[in-house]
Amino acid sequence: MCGILAVIGKRLSEEKIGGLSKRMSHRGPDESDVHVTEEGYVLSHERLSIVDLETGKQPIQGTSTAWMIHNGEIYNHQALRNNELKHHTFRTTGDSEVIVHLYEEFGVDFLNKLDGVFSFVVVDGKDFIVARDPIGVKPLYYGTDDEGSIWFASEMKTLVDQCSSFAAFPPGHYYTPETGFVEYYTPDWFDYKKATKELDLSKIRESLIEATRKRLMADVPLGVLLSGGLDSSLTSSIAARLMKDSGQKLHSFSIGLDETAPDLVAARKVAKFLGTEHSEFHFTVEEGIDILKKLVWHLETYDVTSIRASTPMYFLSKGIKEKGVKVVLSGEGADEIFGGYLYFKNAPTADDFQKETIRRVQRLATADCLRADKSTMAHGLEARVPFLDKAFLKTAMETEAVHKLPKTYDGVEKYILRKAFDTPEQPFLPDEVLWRQKEQFSDGVGYSWIDELIAYASAKVSDEQMAKASEKYPYNTPATKEAYFYREIFHSHFPQENAAKTVKRWIPKWQEDLDPSGRANTSHVATNAKKQLEELAQI
């Protein structure tokens, strides 16, 4: 994974572009480079080396005149080399280079051949194409300056003082000067009426196993983020099985306020069951509060739930990187795909349920994907998300919605995912973890984290400020003192109106209390951490 920056239409010095690019040096601490084409187009790259450690430096030149920068991973790069691109000569053995060769072979009509996550820019003479992966796992922003030049970058902070207008690049789209924005990813499941497939538990299971297998591609140590919840525990279990025959030891990592945190207790059970090399990290509420300003700069959002959850993820990523691991698997996406958030239990109908899963998946780029990418990449750590594999999405999202409704199964959220991996003959997880209640990450690290954070933020914002909130912030007006507090921090970093408009707020539906914490849902049952610790000691 990396940070990319491109400027089309303005000739900048390598010193100038390099300085701007270094604002994202956390994304690529291993090496960096700049290339200026004959037309004056500028490409800059900050590299986190994961695949092809020796020759994978970017920008990468194609066969002749085309050049490329890429942030992401292309999991089918070897198959593309062996088939569609078998007559091409490559300069590297890395996954990224296939992009520029596909452009040379097919023009702009190659995006659906890619299996992976990406934000990239390819320039060829005066022509260029820019694209972002289907769900927006990898971030990308674009803007224009006062002279009409077009800018593209992995993070907004690189553009805000250079561009007069800017926005988030839409997922599943590409851009060329001739076509403008084109949506290339339009699967059938975008239409809720096409969720008509019969439930096939074995297909769901095998599809997720294959999605995880792809994401083990790395030339560096690999680990898993293990919260002890269903999603991260499943990806950890699958990875442990797949890596067992290779002789590699799987590293697992968890975080909480203290040893009684609900996630830490459950994660220990999973780690012991799987035999992973497990590491546990703690942080204090005071430490979390102290890094909020720096965290918002990294995240580029003021969304309440993103900041709450990103704080422990930021500390966890720091600890993981210090242990020498550069790639981790994560469970993002499962709650959106299967309606795992507790408010989904209140969906009025199966159609409403399906529409909401589609909306949530389509907005992942503004929420969980943004959080997972930026809080990990703040420390040069790459997070991979098997649940957002294109093939797995197709299998899960096209399954008839009635099979996913929690009310169909006595209120058990994500029932079909749990059932798909409920294999007593060769269990993937202990029953108490496989059927564990949903805990959102910001709750699972310890309930007092959110409670004390709300109290701190509320003490920092006066009633008078809240009364005038709509005057100061007419767009996405903060509804609580906590939200106002985060908005103030965001505004101190990014005061531009365009910056505020890149943010989408995460708000639950179908419940009276609209706080994004899972504990705000009336169906939430608090975890008895003391009892769980006693049970764990007996295992």
Automatic annotation (TrEMBL):
SUPFAM superfamilies (UniProt xref): Adenine nucleotide alpha hydrolases-like, N-terminal nucleophile aminohydrolases (Ntn hydrolases)
All residue ranges annotated as the Glutamine amidotransferase type-2 domain in the record: 2-180
CDD domains: Asn_synthase_B_C (cd01991), AsnB (cd00712)
Top enzyme category: ligase
Residues flagged as site, Important for beta-aspartyl-AMP intermediate formation: 332
PANTHER family: ASPARAGINE SYNTHETASE (PTHR11772), ASPARAGINE SYNTHETASE [GLUTAMINE-HYDROLYZING] (PTHR11772:SF2)
Name of the protein this chain belongs to: asparagine synthase (glutamine-hydrolyzing)
